[in-house]
Amino acid sequence: MRILYSWLKEYVDPGVSPEDLSKHLLLMGFEVAEIQTLGPGFEGVVIGEILEIGKHPNADRLNLCSVKVGGETLSIVCGAKNVAIGARVPVARIGAKLPGGRAIGPAKIRGTESQGMICSAQELGLPNGSHEGILILPADTPIGQDAAALLGGSDHALEVEITPNRPDLLSHFGLARELSIHFGLPLNSPAAGAVNANGASRTVGIEAKDGCGRYVGRDLTGVRVSPSPGWLAKRLEGAGLRPINSVVDVTNYVLFELGHPLHAFDADKLKGDVVVRRAKTGEKIKTLDGKEHALEAGDLVIADASGPIAIAGVIGGEATSVTDKTTKVFLEAANFDAGTVHRTARRLGIRTDSSYRFERGADPEAAAAASARAADLILQIAGGTAAEPSDAYPGRRDAAPISISAARINRILGSAFPADRVEALLKALATRTSPLADGIQFFAPSHRGDLATPWDLAEEVARHLGYDRIPSEAGPVKPLRPKSIPVVDLVDSLRDAMRAAGFYEAYNTDFVSQAQMDLFGANAPKRPIKVLNPIAEDQAYLRPSLVLGLLNNAVYNMHHGASGVRLFEIGRVYELNEQREPVERTYLAALQLGDFSDKGTWRSWRDDPSAYFYYAMKGAADAVLSRHEQVERAPGERNALFHPSASVVVRAAGRPLGRYGAVHPSILKSLGLERHHAGAMLFNLDILAALETPPAKFVPYSTLPTVVRDLSIVTDAAVEFKNIHDAIAGLPHVSSVELVDVYEKAPIPAGKRSLTLRIELSPGDKTLRDAEVQAVMQQAIDRLAKDCGAVLRG
Amino acid sequence: MTHYAMPDRKSWEKEWKEVSGHALVAVNSATSLDGLETLRLEYLGRKGRLTSLLKDLKDFDLGDRRELGGPSNAFKEELSAAIDAKKAELEGAAQDAAIAGTKLDLTLPGLAPAEGRLHPLTLVMREMTGILSRMGFSWAEGPHVETDHYNFESLNFPPNHPARDMQDTFYVDAGSGVPGSILLRPQTSPVQIRRMEAQRPPLRIMAPGRVFRHEAVDASHGAVFHQIEGLYVDKGVTMADLKGTLLVFIQSLFGPKAQMRFRPSFFPFTEPSAEVDMQCILCEGSGCPACKRTGWMEVLGAGMVHPNVFKGVDYDPEVWSGFAFGMGVERIAMLKLGITDLRLFYQNDLRFLEQFK
User: Fold this and answer.
1) How confident is the model at residue B70, as a pLDDT?
2) Angle at B215 between CA B214 and CA B221, to 5 degrees
3) Closest Cα in chain B, distance from residue A408 (Å)
4) Cα angle, residue B49 at apex, residues B44 and B53 outer, rounded to 5°
5) Interface mutation vs chain A, best among B118, B265, B267, B348, most A CBs within 10 Å
6) Over chain B, what is the mean pLDDT?
7) Alpha helices (runs of H) in A239-275, residue ranges in sequence order
């Protein structure tokens, strides 16, 4: 709400500067976003009288005027048609500055010297600047006086942010009323002169009673529409509005003065009876903004025999608008349903000063006063006569009183505001109060629809007496049983695990593009969630997978000088289920791409990047699954993201839990990263968190020395390590079997490979003797030969 | 290696004089471990000269044995100790000589393990939820894809009310109902309702999580960001409790000098409502560009739970009262970490991520 400081001061004088007022307003709950200084915009301009008008020697259309400015007379060239002897005019003397930075210097116009310039209103930046010709001032304007003091007068415009619960503050008088309560200052009401009324106005039928609580109509005749007088135009411009014509300007003026929206129809263009009703499907209306709108059944309209003539509370129709030729005016001051106005205005994308106020809730009681005020102003400015208003008021309701006491308010706030101050404030806020045994009954004024409960009054008291006077002291609290959420705890521990594994944590937004989804090809999610109003086309879907974001991050970083990335993200992914209900799952995703210098604990992957990235991700996956030995792992089947023969699917009790492995080369190619290799993993943390975790339990170990033996064997390359491991892991005394090396080159024959195993033997209650160690190792060799066809490497 | 032929006293004494006169001098002037070992064998070896002297004493009279045995045994101990000391000295010198050739550039980088990073928002959220959790708030979660009911109606936003426009909302194509009824939550407040539906009071929860706003992304606004919501419901909870709780929280997060200011505001789900400003941590209230020269920065919104919200979850507002607050995590992270562009959080540039350890 843009508030002109000079206008506000007509109703209440806060006695402080605009800057200080904005500080008070902030602590009352209304931030002032901006304070604009509205200066006169010019200097060095004085009032002069035109003494003589002569023809310019070299130009037919120019005059050479003698202008008296105080003690001297200037010779000034002027081209305006309305120059007249005796006219008092603003004269920009040599050295004057005009709006827009224009400086007046000595000038020769068509060979004749001009000692200044006679100004138009427009040249001075004055509100009624649309007039042609020079500005002619009243005949009694003192000659020689500084025009800035007379015409300009500096002012301030405050952009006050009014919260949606306070439509009563969306006017100069409304804000003044609030300030008068806050500061305890007298309030001047706008002068509403008694309107001399003749005859009756037409009655407007209210068909849609749930949409229109009151309709005050008034006919005015013999009106002469013209541009508004300067004072009115200047105020409207100061408040940020464009003056249109006297009648329309009055309706806007009263809106900014009292806060109640009005509309003026050209009564000659109304056909038959006027009603307020719901629109019929298929009806159309061309509105004041020049656009045609299709109406829907829920919309509320003002209609005559020809159809809708205005969208109630939103905007008027073009066909019945007031023009320069209008002589009969029908003035509307109504109360329309907030929800209806909001819905229609939003759907049509029209936001007017009227809809802004109605959708926040207008005061039905204010309609009659606004109508009277506007009628009075129109008669003053545009002449004519007014009829008695017609007033249909089916929605009249008295708000229920609130039983309240200072003690109750202090209980809500934890404050100690004195009862007399609280009650004095409540009385200033109420239309009336009546005493109760332990407090008062509070009757809220009609413009304060937001005051309905003791809590609302507690806020009012705190707002006016000071939020800073409520102590910052919390009372004692009871201990409550803390609730833990398994997936939250899991996320917390996995973040640390991934960090320890060398991954950087990423946060991506939840939006992905169609192009990103296309990466999945035929494996694209079947039911992604589409955003109905995306900010941009490339943010049209909610992410079905965290990997999409990580791949983007990889591309970004590789283009910004990174040689490799290791990233992980934990977050939600989205999809619809078969019933089209949204389903959210918490996932962990990790991506490793490009060059890394740490090369793991064993070596054979070196020649095969797919192998390296598979085993790297397997190592990271093992860290994630470290407390869940019971998961099942199986070779990955066809999948858009993963390399088909270098990836694994993890399941828990048959449910898919995740995947890890090398990234499919075609994905990297689509991203322009075909020179690189990558590995990735994905885990559904909702499922992982739901798995039972065996509680940590101590397993005793022997304090006697263990024995370590290395064993190098050669098997068919097709024999899996898991079989080799399992063949010997169960032998007596064997406490671990670790892989030291894998070797597949000469002298190992093709199709074979050599594995070096490190076998740790733990004693029982006696130190292991050599013979016992030999016996176990022989068993191991025998078992490997039998189960895996292994021979000792020579 | 016997140096004298007969175990008679005279020749024994002659030999004793030699041994006791020279052995210590020889040991103390040894210059190598090998030379020292040779001396040890010469005197103390199995057939060493001092060993032999002591051995031969057994053939003497008791009187001679007593007279000669004392000093010679004492001398053996003295000599042993001297050899050990000399050995330690020579070994130390040998070690020093061996490592004297090591020349390191002590400033070359250390061999670091591959260490990852947590995202700065994780770090700041951990700090914030850590403080709240020590103050007794339990973690609560809710869906990001919400219904109109949980996000608006039950939070006392009337249908078709402009208060709904305070947060520009994303809608998604889901569900079988009217389009526009399934949305991405623009606030964490729906979690309040879900928890109050599931649990009778008293309760004290915090709900950290993502929120979504349909607004243009710039250095201080994101379409996706994080909030932490707090809710406390019990008998007799007042606005003074809210102010006291938030002061403890803010001072725990920003240090004991942090100052807080409550000013009136409007949220449909709280009454009274407040915006909470913190004294600018950069200029300490004197006014700077970061706080738009006001000395204060808006950090959170708060208020007493609106009676209509309580009625909707079947809590009697005449019995129970409570407070709620919500704050943007990115804004606090930017203040704490000195980050001036919110978009950096979602760019995942390694040069950004690696800075936060």
Assistant:
1) 86
2) 125
3) 11
4) 105
5) B348
6) 91
7) 246-258
Query: Which residues are CB-contacts of B237 (< 8 A; sequence separation ≥ 6)?
Result: B304, B321, B322, B323
Rounded Cα–Cα distance for residues A257 and A242 (Å): 16
Contact B348 A567 (CB under 8 A): yes
The distance of B102 to chain A (nearest Cα, Å) reads 27
- Which amino acid, one-letter code, is at A77? V
Classify A727 as helix, strand or coil.
Answer: helix
A605: pLDDT strictly greater than 70: no
> Could you give the ipTM of this predicted complex?
0.83
Rounded to an integer, the average pLDDT of A673-688 is 94
The CATH number given to A2-39+155-183 is: 3.30.56.10
Highest mean pLDDT out of A395-399, A701-705, B319-323: B319-323
CATH architecture of the domain formed by A402-469: 2-Layer Sandwich (3.30)
Q: Are A49 and A88 in contact (CB under 8 A)?
A: yes
B120-353 to CATH, choices 2.40.50.100, 3.50.50.60, 3.30.930.10, 3.20.20.140: 3.30.930.10
| Residue A610, both tokens | 């797919």
CB proximity B172 to A under 8 Å: yes
Q: Which of A175-179, B236-240, B285-289 has the lowest mean pLDDT?
A: B285-289
Predicted TM-score (pTM) of this structure: 0.83
Beta-carbon neighbour count of residue B127 at 10 Å?
15
pLDDT at A742 over 50: yes
Q: Which 3 state secondary structure label does DSSP give B134?
A: helix
Q: So what's the pLDDT on residue B97?
A: 86
Q: Tell me the per-residue pLDDT of A442-453, one tens digit each, with 9 for 90 and over.
A: 999 999 999 999
Establish if A474 touches chain B: CB-CB under 8 angstroms: yes
Angle ∠(A467,A471,A473) on CA atoms, nearest 5:
135
d(CA B113, CA B106): 19
Cα separation, A231 vs A241, in Å, equals 13
Give the residue on B whose Cα is nearest the Cα of A535.
Answer: B214
Question: What's residue A486's pLDDT?
Answer: 93
- Mean of the pLDDT values across residues A599-628? 77
* Interchain contact, A459 vs B271, CB within 8 Å: yes
